Amino acid sequence: MKEPNYFIPPRSFEIFGFDIYYYAVMIVIGILLACVAAGLLFKRRNIPVDWLFDLILCVLPLGIIGARTFSVVTDPGTSITEWFSGFRDGGLSIIGGVIGGALGVLLFCLIHKVNFFRVADCVVPGLALAQAIGRWGNFFNQEVYGAEVTNTAMQWFPFAVYIENSHTWHYAFFFYESLINLAVFALLFTFMWKFKKKPSGLAMCGYFFCYGLTRSIMEPLRDSQYILGYNIPVSLVFSIIMCVGGAVCALALLYCNRRKYGLVIGAAEGEPLAILPQYFTKEQLKKMEEEKLAKAKAAKAVQEKRPPRGVLRCPECGAKIVAEGEISKCPYCGSPIQLPAQSDGTERADSEGAQEDKK
User: Fold this and answer.
1) What is the distance between the alpha carbons of residues 232 and 239, in angstroms, rounded to a whole number?
2) Range with the lowest mean pLDDT among 54-58, 70-74, 105-109, 120-124?
3) In terms of Cα–Cα distance, which of 65, 214, 191, 174 is closest to 125?
4) How far apart are CA 140 and CA 203, in angstroms?
5) What is the largest CA-CA distance in the chain?
6) Rounded Cα–Cα distance for residues 344 and 327 (Å)
7) How much is the pTM?
8) Is the pLDDT of residue 213 over 70?
9) pLDDT tens string 111-135
């Protein structure tokens, strides 16, 4: 068997006698970067950034609880009594974390009375980024890999990974999924940052479709000890549900958008797309837009009633007078003068010429 030609790091390091696992470090880094991405999209989509802390308080605990619970319930080798005892030894399911996190987003939206799809769209790009980074924790833990690679020409990292316990090379599924999640993050973040007039919830559906499709393809190819479930691969079932549900929900959103606006992806009104100094609700923004249009119409009406600007000569002193609107007398000699309300500059010029001829 070909030995690895790269450094295999230890699973943990020690600080003040306390073991810190690299797996946990990668997860924490992923969570922090996910919060940064969500904060940027919150500001971009005119959602108060100070709400981000409330979102973390709702999503993070429920996400961890969901990840651990899903792993314990679907693993036949783990009993429910081991929920806490084996927590630090691993046993977290991303699918369970996504389900728990979704419940956390729903709780946040109920508290702040904001649209669930709008918030979820801002969260899922960062979630994909966190998964891309967190998957490298599986590299440190020597887990989440595929079948054995017997062809020596294919035994190289990152295509394959050397597992010390079995002293064999396996397909590096954690690396494949990390790259796919990174691509999904780039796609969803760009979509959320660039496109203003889109149905809320479309990015969330795109995430579920992409992640569900990826797991549906990779789950049957993983090593059997990492497939959660009893007689059926539960993770595969949930992955298929995510994929199909995301696609159906996206089509439903596009259909409803077409029925409402006559467009598949566009809309008559879109969410505010700018980094604003303060938060405005949709009703406030609509009222501000109506006031702006009313002022523009009023200014246009005044401009239409006002005669065009012209130059007159006083019939008494002959002084040139720049007039705009009706005037009553010459500012130089005080002689009465009247500017006829005319809408054409040529007619005014004719009037001025007639006055000069008369003089």
Assistant:
1) 13
2) 70-74
3) 191
4) 31
5) 115
6) 18
7) 0.69
8) yes
9) 988 889 989 999 999 999 999 999 9
Q: Output the six-digit token pair for 339.
A: 């500017």
Per-residue pLDDT averaged across 321-336, rounded?
66
Among candidate residues 101, 106, 105, 100, the one with its CA nearest the CA of residue 66 = 100
Helices (H), 13-169: 22-44, 52-74, 94-112, 116-134, 136-141
Instruction: Please list, residue by residue across 195-234, b when 16 or more beta carbons sit within 10 angstroms of its beta carbon and e when fewer do.
Output: eeebbbbbbbbbbbbbbbbbbbebbeebbeeebbbeeebb
Domain definitions of the chain by residue range: 12-268, 310-358
Rounded Cα distance between 199 and 282, Å, is 15
- Alpha-carbon span 59 to 289, nearest angstrom: 34
* Total Cβ atoms within 10 A of residue 86: 16
How many whole angstroms separate alpha carbon 134 and alpha carbon 136?
5
- Angle, CA 54 vertex, CA 51 and CA 60 arms, to 5°: 130
Q: Which two tokens stand for residue 17?
A: 């006698």
Of 252, 228, 230, 249, the closest CA to residue 239 belongs to 228
| % of the chain exceeding 70 in pLDDT | 70
* Sole residue written with tokens 């994909």: 128
The sign of the torsion formed by the CA atoms of 227, 229, 231, 234 equals negative
Is 11 annotated to bind ligand? no
Q: Render 148-193 in DSSP notation, one character per residue.
A: B---GGG--TTTEEEETTTTEEEE-HHHHHHHHHHHHHHHHHHHHH
CA dist 56 and 35 (Å) reads 8
Residue with tokens 């059926």: 232
- pLDDT tens string 299-325: 877 766 655 556 666 777 766 666 655
d(CA 246, CA 239): 11
